[in-house]
Each structure stands twice: as C-alpha cells, then as structure tokens.
Amino acid sequence: xxxxxxxxxxxxxxxxxxxxxxxxxxxxxxxxxxxxxxxxxxxxxxxxxxxxxxxxxxxxxxxxxxxxxxxxxxxxxxxxxxxxxxxxxxxxxxxxxxxxxxxxxxxxxxxxxxxxxxxxxxxxxxxxxxxxxxxxxxxxxxxxxxxxxxxxxxxxxxxxxxxxxxxxxxxxxxxxxxxxxxxxxxxxxxxxxxxxxxxxxxxxxxxxxxxxxxxxxxxxxxxxxxxxxxxxxxxxxxxxxxxxxxxxxxxxxxxxxxxxxxxxxxxxxxxxxxxxxxxxxxxxxxxxxxxxxxxxxxxxxxxxxxxxxxxxxxxxxxxxxxxxxxxxxxxxxxxxxxxxxxxxxxxxxxxxxxxxxxxxxxxxxxxxx
Length: 369
Fold this sequence. Notes:
DNA primase, PRIM domain; three-stranded antiparallel sheet
C-alpha cells in the first residue's frame, strides 16, 4: 500500500473515532484488549482500561486499525503471562462467516440465516436468555454472537466443544431420532398399497410436540413433503401420520433427505479457526462499534437481525468523492444500494468515500492525489 493511501486511511479512521462513541464491553475493567495495524490484526495486547472514557480517549489518540477485547474476564487483565491474569470466566462467542472476495449480497444473507439459526439453538435448546446474547456484524464477512449468560461463564473448553458439536450436528445420527417399533402383523403402509405385505415393525420418530433437533427434523420433513410431487391427499395423510410420530411412507427419506434436512439447520463453522473462537476461553474478538481494518466497515451492533443489512447498516464513512486507481481486476460489489464495478486493473474512478476506503483496505485500489 502506498504512503499517501495509508495517510488518507489513518485520517479517516481518526475522524471516525473523534465523532463516534464506541461503547465499552460489559466488565471493561476485567477485559484484556489488543490492537492492530494494517499489517497485523493484533500487533500488541495485554492492555486494560478502567472506564469507557479511558478507552475512548485511547482510540481517539492512537487510532488503531483493529480493536479486539477478550472473551475472558480477568482479575489482572494487563499482566502479560496468561497464568498471572487469574481467569474468572469467559463469554461464549461464535464467529460466523463465509469466504467472499468482495461484499456479496447472497453470501451475506446466507451467513445471516446461520446467525438466526444459532440464536434459535442458544435460546430454545440451551435456555440462554436472549437479552444476554449480543449480535454484531463482524465488519467483514459475517456475524459475531456474544453470550454473556452467567450459566456459561465458567464453562471450559471441552464443555464449549460439546455445544459446538451440538449446533453443528457433529456426530448426529439419524438413529437417534428414527427407529423401528413393533406393531401388529398385517399392517399395510401407504407406500405399499400396490404391493401389500405383512409387516411387524414401523418406522417411528419425532412428533409435532418434539423439541430441539427432533423438532427441526420434524419441520424439515414437513417441508420435504410439501415440496414433493405427491397429491394433496397423500400429503395430508403423511402429515397426519407424522403428527403421531409415524414416519412410514415417505419415499426416499431414509437416505439422502435426512442429511439435507440436518444441513439446513446445522451451523457451518468454517474449519478449526472459527471453532477455536468458541472453544478458546482466552480469545480476543473484535470490539462492537469499532472499525474493521480490512474493510472500513463497522462491527455494527445488530438490534433486529431480520432487517439488518450490512451493505447499508455497517457503513461508517460518507459520500464525499474520492479518486482511486484500481490495482487488480475485480468483480462488482454493492454498498448503500449502489453497484460498483466490475473493474480492470489500472482503471481510474471517482467513488464515494465509503466505497473508496473499502477498496483501499482490500488492497484493490490506491488513492489518487
């Protein structure tokens, strides 16, 4: 990145922190903070603050490009040796994202649906209080979920792994939900009307009153039936049977369809990196309301996830015109309902400041003086 571009970005970030307040996290005096540059997301750490005002003054004075804080609460957060910090507990945090070179509406919507699914798991399956779960856009490619419920603060890595396994459907076996039950001989099921035969067992499973994963499997097969090509009469009979937990007569469900239903609801943590965010009780995570040094977007707090649009609601900078020169070929992207690109390397363009900053931080463009 050229010097003029770096200077321009530094001024824009400083201006943001001078004009915008960044709310301190709960228990700020027990949190460890880390800060980064354009080249290193966490250049140094083991910093602590006593008050929100002290944190805000630091951001205005030093203007880091990345700001992270610990999921953990410590007695001595500023101590450099982890064992000397005296760990007191930690929030449960999930990092949901997806790979995309530039902002992509379809991919962002897919990640948002995962965040909605995860909230359902946390509230309805684990009984966590929704009021104690914070959601914020990561500032780049997804969402961070922060659980501050007292019931989970002391959980260790293995307990948190079990939660991850549950929401990702790791090791989930359909035999846990569907099994054969003894019935009176002579029963004929819907799928066998043309070729009746004696049966002594039937497939049973979740009902409409099930909860947790069984209920998700139940809802998924209802959707499967509704989208099938069978007659309405056939659909009605199958749904009536399912309500009672009888799962016979659903063609093909025992094989591929079960896996597809699980995939619909399971949370997709991309590899070990995202899983470790949840398992690591000393992890540093991006501070809500701060700027992302790789995009210039806000790690915006999400009040209503259904209506939240990061391509509009996470914009931090204005619309003043900035001249740039692209440094590589790129596809188009969208910000504030405007489409930009595609561009070829070496093109010159005048873009709104928020779009220009985004491309500079993506190493896709340099400032033209």
